[in-house]
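ok so for the tutorial part 2 we go from a plain amino acid sequence to predicted structure tokens. step 1 is just haveing the sequence, like this:
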Amino acid sequence: MNFYILLLLSYLIGSIPFGYLIGKINKIDIKKVGSGSTGATNVSRFLGAKWAVLVALLDISKAFLPLFLAFTYLNSEIEIALIVIITILGHIFPVWLNFKGGKGVSVIVPALIFFAGLWQTIVLISFWAILLKTIKVMSLNNVALIFFVPFLFWFHTHSLVYFLLGIVIFLIILYAHRENISRLYNDNELKL
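step 2 — the prediction. this is what the tokens look like for a chain of 192 residues:
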């Protein structure tokens, strides 16, 4: 498969707004309530945990497909890294919703599995779940989780490209959470 076709396909797949679609099924415009994000966190606030879990699983699945195709058809670490980045950007800036989507955390899970290893991902997600139960602030939890991504990528792959990919992912997620970070700073961030 041609890299540029896969790049476009990855963006379009990443752009599928499952949170928005699930909201519409339940007669809620998820972009007009809460944080306005189409991600699982905002869905959980207005539709409950079962719908949020479904959205998270769908978002993880949509990110898995481009990465699987990248590993199947591409040999370049740089090209594979770009597929990961464009899929995340598709989720955060979906063409279908005027480039306003989710925060990108769910869609990094396949990258964690591929570049950090399954067991390390399970440990990281377990740590994330414990931290979330303790502090109940999803944005702070997410930023704390993402901080470790570059180091996990390096530890598992010893690839400079994938280490840099981890840094780029961290910066993208930080940017996507910029309003949350501002609310955290002003002590008025939403809790679960």
